[in-house]
Here is the input.
Amino acid sequence: MLTNKTVILGITGSIAAYKAAELASKLTQAGAKVEVVMTGSATEFITPLTLRGVTGRPVVADMFEPTLEWSIEHVALAEAADVVVIAPATANIIAKMAAGLADDMVSLTVLATKAPVIVAPAMNVNMFENPVTQENLARLKARGFIIVDPEYGRLASGAKGKGRLAELDKIMAAIEGALGGSADLAGKRLVVTAGGTRERIDPVRYIGNPSSGKMGYALAEAARDRGAKVTLITASSLPQPEGITVVPVETAAQMKQAVDRAVAKADALLMAAAVADYKPRTVSRSKIKKARPGLTLKLVRTPDILGEVKGKFLRVGFAAESDNIIANAKKKLVKKNLDLIVANDITDKKSGFGVDTNKVTLIGKQGKDESLPLMSKREVADKILDRVVGLLK
Ligand code: C5P
Here is the structure.
């Protein structure tokens, strides 16, 4: 969503200014073109050079820098912006924005832009609670500014109170929300599994399946883009996505261990992985020689991760079926005590294993089954997450 978007990041003089470097880094890594503007006091807390290093772009802090044709350029930039983010925003810049002043690079950019403006305040609790700051914030809100509320916690002064800059994930979610995405999973923790597990036979062979992990990765990325904190437990070798905690595993037993650990704080578990149902009873330490005329492997059941996992969170399962798709999926919904099951027909070439598209039916405990047309896995992911959002309410 952030790819090729122009994000103007306005930094002002709060101790939290150092956190803006990480925000700039996250935005840059997500593909955005990040243009940093700073107030003079912000440069006392963090150097423009740091921001320049992170974004790879010039940083503007001085309105009257002779090398800059800012009078023209700043307006052009403010006009080109897809979104403007002020993080951290001091009481001072909030007052200036509310009053329409434009005597520093940040307030000037805000006054000149038509893009959505996100404000993430960070300041001393008394300054934040002061009626004048609250009035200014209310004025900005009334004008359509998006305020990412500061959090309660230990402040730089040592006192506790509301005034800490919001978690960067929340600010990221607000940015994505302003860019047209939805931040309806902000603050939620999702655990997603992906890929096909492998069960070793000997040092060079395993029992596997053709699951690519694409559906699970699409889910994890879509959830991230909607503001969720995502843990992706993966048996796939797809490249690691940004902004997601990735836990690589190989076998069903390892996946179970990782899932049991990750769900402790989760709001939802989405089991998109194709987990092996059987594994060799013993793993041969040395390579089995093919001189033998035939080979019989003794297999034993692997744990049913989804069926056995304990805890209070939403459970979403997948049912890859080749026949009696809906009836089989419904049986699994009940047996594994799921809130939602995603059924797909793996005999269809455009749906399921390996490809980028999928054709699924969403089946909940109640209500009508939702049969979706063939769509990209990312679109399917968003449809599943729409249901998750509804169920989490
Ligand atoms: O394999 P089955 O069709 O029963 O899978 C349905 C769901 O259960 C899937 O979401 C899959 O990830 C999960 N599953 C599991 N542990 C297994 C097998 C499947 O959690 N051993």
Q: What stands out?
A: The mean pLDDT is 93. The chain has two domains: 6-178, 185-392. The chain has 14 helices and 21 strands. Residues 185-392 form a domain with the Rossmann fold fold (CATH 3.40.50.10300).
